[in-house]
User: Fold these one by one.
Assistant:
Number 1:
Amino acid sequence: MDDGKKSKVLEVHGLEVKLKTDAGAVSLLEPIYFELKKGQILGLVGESGSGKTLTCNALLQLLNRQMMDVKGSVRLNGRELNGMTAEEMRRVRGKDIALIMQNPMSAFTPVYTIGAQFTETIRTHTELTKRQARDLAVTALEKMNLPEPVKLMKRYSFQLSGGMLQRVMIAISMCLRPAVVIADEPTTALDVVNQLQVLRELDRLRTEYGTSILLISHDLGVISQMADEVAVMQQGRIVEQAEVHRLFDQPQHEYTKMLLHARPRLSLRDMNQAGG
Ligand SMILES: Nc1ncnc2c1ncn2[C@@H]1O[C@H](COP(=O)(O)OP(=O)(O)OP(=O)(O)O)[C@@H](O)[C@H]1O
């Protein structure tokens, strides 16, 4: 499909963040501009501390306004998010824009079962009865290829692996069908098998439901497989943005070239050989 004809779901215009200090404002995020079209995956890369997570938190209005000044516009399906009250954002988060974070353990509380938390989230955002929400949750877990979903609903987060929890989070997103999913290093804490499964399910969210995804990763391999377009961040600014093949084949900015060169070249075969 011609990308130019797809509708814009998320429009970020001049989003910037300044830290308020006694000595004056310190810029953490220089004005950034990007958009996400329906079903598009935008990869956000950059070394540690370049501002990727800060961008996520600014988009989701999760920054502490007493400490930070957030300017610019974040429009989700034409609706301005910047400046929304906490209550308004609570309604938007999860249902219209969801976050899949690096450490899924922190997204669940250890005192309630997975099922209780899953159905509660569904019921907060829909009119479904408890039973309907439960059935929907079980179906979503099944679709995520999680084994024995009915039993899984009765378990607690600490009884599940990181990869399983990550897939539960994606299953929740699947039920609520948010227009945008922000995935902040979703596979960093996982082993290779779980990484692949999580990436496959994220891709399914996009193909089956047309979800747009902002995929944050320092892993250029993941980005090259998943993203349509890539934005490169360095010291709180986007220094280069291009279609994925163009960025990998013809990087323009010195920092992008440096990132591509620094890519670990070790393959599974190298590791097996090294191990004898
Ligand atoms: N609450 C805060 N107070 C002060 N500085 C902050 C705060 N949050 C982030 N920063 C600064 O903003 C910069 C960007 O941090 P951020 O966490 O977004 O980086 P990142 O690219 O996500 O790194 P990583 O890959 O390690 O998660 C860093 O220099 C960090 O020190």
Note: The pocket of adenosine-5'-triphosphate is lined by residues 19, 28, 46, 48-54, 218 (CB under 6 Å).
Number 2:
Amino acid sequence: MSVIPSVDLGEFLSDSNEKKEKFIKEIGDAFESIGFVALRGHFLSDALVTELYREIKKFFNLPQVVKDKYEIEGIGGQRGYTSFGKEHAKGRKEGDLKEFWHFGQYVENDPKLAKEYPDNISVDELPRFNKVGKETYKMLEKTAKYVLRALAIHLGLEEDYFDNYIKNGNSILRPIHYPPITREPKNAVRAAAHGDINLITLLMGAQGKGLQVKNHKGEWVDAIASPDELMINVGDMLSRLTNNRLKSTIHQVVNPPKELWGSSRYSIPFFMHPISGMPLNCLDNCVDEKHPKQFEDITAGEYLNERLVELGLVKPSEAHTK
Ligand SMILES: O=C(O)CCC(=O)C(=O)O
Ligand SMILES: [Fe+2]
């Protein structure tokens, strides 16, 4: 049995105040304890999910020389392809056993932000790849917007508190391929223990075994969603903003038992980021005598740069603050 609570976004979107309040309480309680929920009633259709998986499998099956064309120097892996073994969790030397793709924001009516973000990269070999990625990005962004509205109410803020910070925000959709394991991986794992950097993460593909979450007793528990659910978790930015009232829980993707080494694993997280100017200073109503302020004031852009250096995606010399 999974210990991750399950919630229905349909309740928050309904006309019933009672259902809305139930959703807010359930997700609020979950994020103050285990930091993860499985969410149904989101905006992704089955057809879109099926097509996205088909496209990303086609992409990762392309010859390595073709994929390498899409690994762009100097943008810290923020768009396009990142090759196998490149990213490592904070504080680790061994690269994770994964390759991935990044779709970024499709900026509307904001030339300054459009200049700040690298352009999305088009895959010439796959005519549907970019269209399907964009559609998924939009649907996950919409889902995340309502989740953040519920959390804003839970935190005693105006319901639309996050809206202007996430509009045209620096969110990333990251299809990941964990290839078959061909030799003893020594210390490397599919994804080493880490906390996510961003506000919240929406994860497609948490059906299979592999994803584990560290509970408050320090035990690893399996996090398994059903096929119609997204796994959603709190990232470090939201944890900072709320002075750790909402918990950014450490999680990992373990290697399968040897008899299953031969199969690939795919997962697709959407990392909801705000615009770089959002202050992550602890909210006043999350700081009191019992909960002294735990984090320095910082903007989302400054914090992201710090973290990308720690992950090995940006060299210290390339780091910048906007
Ligand atoms: O692949 C997964 O199930 C989770 C991946 C993850 O935690 C991440 O990319 O941050
Ligand atoms: Fe993660």
Note: The CA atoms of residues 88 and 99 lie 11 Å apart.
